[in-house]
Write a structure and sequence with these properties.
This protein is mainly alpha-helical. It contains 20 helices and no strands.
Length: 437
């Protein structure tokens, strides 16, 4: 009998089982298939075909004893069929066909089940497979947008619909980015392998930057009705934890994980019951996730121990740690935060870092000194079109009693802001200035 959603009970159970296995094991599955086939795009395609087959077969027969082994065996059979269709039956076909049990040469789920000793992947190669998958998805030949989409798809296991919803773009746009990315990797003959050790640290920057973009969009959405997209942010945290486990000697990997954990710790207090934004000074710090703070501080400690000074992510994590340790905004160590932003500006200069330093200067020294920094930044034009600069400038002008100018800046920031919740905060501040007159 169909359920209230119209999905047969068995079908709903199969869907949940498939989604659970895929979300947890997608990186290992695609990584193992890419190593087996030597073809990154084919590996992702046959994995998706195996998922579709699982929805049918698991509804009919129930989930198998080894779901991952079932998916891998099915996907490998699909890969063999693809090679057959392409008439590529020589060494690649022989290498793939060899490990398969007798009766497994047909398409789909039919055939002998995986044997007990037919491991889903070589246990000695798991780490390399997942790392190679990350480095391939974040290869420099791809555009930043393509790297994000491909990483979320093949490493994170997210669907095109989930990625599109997270970044507020149409599903066909995401699908086109993923398709182009796989074609670009194939055309550039990018091998599915870890880059040479001497190149790994340089290439690691691309992986970290992709995870940073994903987390940043989840922690403060650039547009839409929600301030936070926690599902996206927590996916970045999960991937960062995976990367830290796979590269335990890289300080910036731990620095980034610390930043994510310490920032995500504040999520429970950043929105009210109706999803409205709650400013830092108004947050109930008892709602901050103390377990996440402990994990973040531990990761920051590892980053400091491993490195010769903290890198950009470690410095940002140190700033987040200052907030995590403070009982209130007023008792925050703003002088230390100013110094940390100055250090961050030297190793990773950007106008956003300068603007954040100005905010810290305002808290440590007063709004007049900070306004001079913001005005210099405005003259440079490096944040033209962003709501961030007029938003900060409006706050500083309000503290200086320049009410009319402050209201104009806050209203400008609201017009430029694409996020409904942030825009509401800016308009509320501008209205408060009128009420105070």
């Amino acid at each position: 009998m169909p359920s209230a959603t119209g999905v047969p009970p068995g079908g709903e159970s199969a869907r949940r089982a498939v989604e659970a296995v895929w979300r947890i094991e997608s990186a290992r599955i695609v990584g193992a298939l890419a190593r087996y086939t030597g073809d990154f795009a084919l590996a992702e395609d046959v994995a998706q075909e195996a998922l579709a087959q699982a929805l049918v077969s698991w509804e009919r027969d129930g989930p198998p004893a080894s779901p991952v082994g079932w998916l891998l065996a099915t996907a490998r059979r699909r890969a063999i069929d693809a090679f057959r269709r392409a008439s590529a039956l020589d060494e690649r076909y022989a290498a793939l066909a060899g490990p398969l049990a007798e009766g497994e040469f047909s398409t789909g789920a039919a055939g002998a089940p995986p044997q007990p000793d037919d491991l889903p992947w070589d246990p000695d190669r798991v780490d390399d497979d997942v790392l190679a998958l990350m480095f391939t998805a974040c290869h420099p030949v791809l555009s930043p947008e393509a790297r994000v989409a491909l990483t979320l798809r093949v490493v994170g296991g997210l669907s095109s619909e989930e990625i599109a919803r997270a970044f507020l773009v149409p599903v066909p746009t995401v699908q086109a980015r993923i398709t182009r990315a796989k074609k670009t990797i194939a055309a550039a003959h990018v091998p599915f392998e870890l880059p040479p050790r001497q190149e790994r640290r340089t290439r690691l920057g691309a992986v970290l930057s992709v995870l940073y973009v994903i987390f940043t969009e989840g922690s403060t959405a650039t547009g839409g009705q929600d301030l936070l997209r926690p599902g996206l942010a927590y996916e970045a945290v999960r991937l960062a934890r995976m990367l830290a486990a796979l590269l335990p000697a890289e300080p910036e990997v731990h620095g980034q994980l610390a930043l994510f954990e310490l920032t995500a710790a504040r999520f429970p207090a950043r929105t009210g019951p109706d999803g409205e934004a709650v400013l830092l000074e108004d947050q109930d710090r008892r709602r901050w996730d103390r377990s996440a703070i402990r994990r973040g501080l531990a990761a920051l400690g590892r980053a400091a121990t491993l490195g010769r000074g903290l890198g950009p992510y470690g410095l940002q994590a140190s700033i987040a740690a200052c907030h995590a340790a403070a009982p209130s905004v007023e008792r925050t160590d703003w002088e230390r935060i100013v110094l940390l932003y100055e250090a961050l500006g030297r190793v990773a200069p950007s106008p956003v870092v300068e603007l954040n330093r100005a905010v810290a200067v305002a808290m440590a020294e007063g709004p007049r000194q900070a306004l001079a920094l913001v005005d210099d930044l405005a003259v440079s034009g490096r944040l033209s079109g962003s709501h961030l600069l007029p938003g900060v400038r409006g706050e500083l002008l309000a503290r200086l009693g320049r009410t009319a100018e402050a209201r104009a800046e806050l209203e400008l920031a609201a017009r430029l802001c694409r996020n409904t919740r942030e825009r509401a905060v800016l308009l509320r501040k501008a209205a408060a200035l009128d009420a105070a007159r």
